[in-house]
Amino acid sequence: MKQIITYNSIVFVLIISLVSCKKDFLEIDPLVGSTEANFYQNEDDAIAATIACYNNLQQEVTPIQGLGGLAPHFRWYFGDVVSDDTDKGGSGDGDEPDLFKFESFQGTSDSKLVLGEWQTAYKGIAYCNIALENIPGIDMDNDVKDMLIGEIRFIRSYWYFNLATMFGGVPIIEEVLAPSEYQQERSTEEQTWSFIEEDLSQAMLSLPRRSERPLSETGRANWGAAASLLLKSYVYQKKWDVAMDVANEIYNSGEYFLDMNYANIFTTSGENGSGSIWEIQYMSGSGGNWGNQLEGTFTNVFQRARGQFGGYGFNIPTQDLVDEFEEGDPRLNASVFQVGDEMGDRGTFTLEAAGMPHLYYCKKYFNTAAEEGAALGDPNPNGLTNDRVIRYADILLLRAEAAYHMGQQAIALEMINEVRSRARGGDLNILPEVTAGGPYLLDAIYHERRVELSLEGHRFFDIVRQNRGQQLLSDKGFISGTHELYPIPLAEISLSGGLLIQNPGY
Asked: Of 26, 27, 23, 45, whose CA–CA distance to 36 is shortest?
């Protein structure tokens, strides 16, 4: 199949500009003036082209082609704010009004937010397709070549995974298009998932294990990342048998271990730790460029409290989420700031100091003032916190879910209790072992996913794939048959000449 994309979304990379990033593997000089004609000549070129494919993953606020302006596209926008875990926050309803509409399930197809998600994904896919078209012809070590192609396939699959979970079936683009090919139809949801599965299966064959990667390549995709994303793809489609097979492979690989201190996961020292399968890397000290930041994250400043704490105050944990934590669960204090808590070196959290009535703020993406680097421009795109996209605890709980549906309740209990044991931190007076069976065990798995992975962008998509949208989100306006998916951007439908068909209800 061909890549399906419209003219304004396509990106031809005739000049590949790379910038340094947090990890050594991204610290490569810009390739100014390199073109496709003279660039793909040797192994160094192939490596540089592969690193360029990681570039777009760091883009959280990007220019909107065709409409102008900037669009944020954080995983937690649609994964947390649209769920029952958080409220939008900000300075009020008029702060990010498009997000406010989606929070109450009134978002529309002309939103810059869905257009930003669509265009950013297809820009990233375009980078991957250009590299995949050119790297195979380079005379270089075949093992290295296969590894690089595996990395690129993983990145392309990640973009398609995000598109599939947000929009359903989307145009599949697997090669660079000629101008006459820009307008194309959507693939079906089944075809989209099949494409993702094939890319990830191929990537797994050539990617090294985590233990085989040198430290200088921390952050680059490995076998575990591809296997985990494949597992998540199977789970989303309820393919429990193959999901269980992949989950068993990851579990039995011995490559990953839970960090015994849950709170450590979200610190600087906890980045890329034993329980981390894949993180998008960020660093402080960026140039502070809105719309073209390539090093720092905006998430730190967006989620930090307002007032004296210098943040924007988005992604406010709900009382419903706080109440979900069992009494004494240390994960609550590691995830949520409550009134009276010390917010690092920024002061004590009071309503007066924050200037807003919110009782809670997200703690997982909090950065201290001491951690901020010296930005050359606006310091706001200067956050250093990695995005923990796939954690081992996520995989253990997906294995528990797959085991439950395969009738292997003993394995499901083992997985959920392994996660709870780490969270317990040795205190046997809290978080007792789960012994439930039948539907109560499934409820326990769902509960554990919510508290373990809270505020990490999973909740809405979990609710949707579990077919619980009407049950849990109807008070916010969720309508079954419509709000499991987001609207296809109106601008893209227009550019396609009507070939892109809108999702039901929009």
From this structure: 45
Give the residue with greater pLDDT, 61 vs 323: 323
Please state, in angstroms and rounded to a whole number, the distance separating the CA atoms of residues 6 and 437.
50
Q: 3-class DSSP state for residue 336?
A: strand
* E strand residue ranges, 318-450: 336-338, 360-362, 387-391
Residue 51 has which token pair? Answer: 């690193």
Cβ atoms of residues 337 and 361 within 8 Å: yes
Backbone conformation region of residue 455, classed left if phi is above 0, alpha if psi is from -120 to 50, else beta:
left
Give the model's confidence band at 69: pLDDT under 50 very low, under 70 low, under 90 confident, else very high: confident
- Report pTM: 0.93
Please give the Cα distance from 357 to 258 (Å, whole number).
Answer: 36
Of all helices (H) and strands (E), which one includes residue 97? helix 97-103
Angle, vertex CA 499, rays to CA 497 and CA 502, nearest 5: 110
> Which residues, in sequence order, are CB contacts of 292 under 8 Å at separation 6+?
62, 63
Report H helices in 207-311. Answer: 223-236, 240-252, 299-303
Q: Tens digits of per-residue pLDDT, 129-154?
A: 999 999 999 999 999 999 999 999 99
Kindly tell me if the per-residue pLDDT of 111 is higher than 70: yes
Residue 167 pLDDT greater than 80, yes or no: yes
Q: What is the pLDDT of residue 25?
A: 41
DSSP, collapsed to helix, strand or coil, labels residue 12 as coil
CA distance 375 to 373: 6
CB hemisphere CA count around 28 (13 angstroms)? 20
The strand pairing partners of 316, in sequence order, are: 87
Cβ-based neighbours of 39, under 8 Å, separated by 6 or more: 16, 31, 45, 49, 134
| Residues 311, 139: Cα–Cα separation, whole Å | 50
Query: Beta strands of 252-378 (E only): which ranges?
Result: 276-280, 314-317, 336-338, 360-362
Q: Which amino acid is at 81?
A: V
103: Cβ contacts below 8 Å, ≥ 6 apart: 81, 82, 87, 88, 476
CA distance 69 to 58: 18
Distance, in Å, from the CA atom of 277 to the CA atom of 250, rounded to the nearest integer, reads: 10
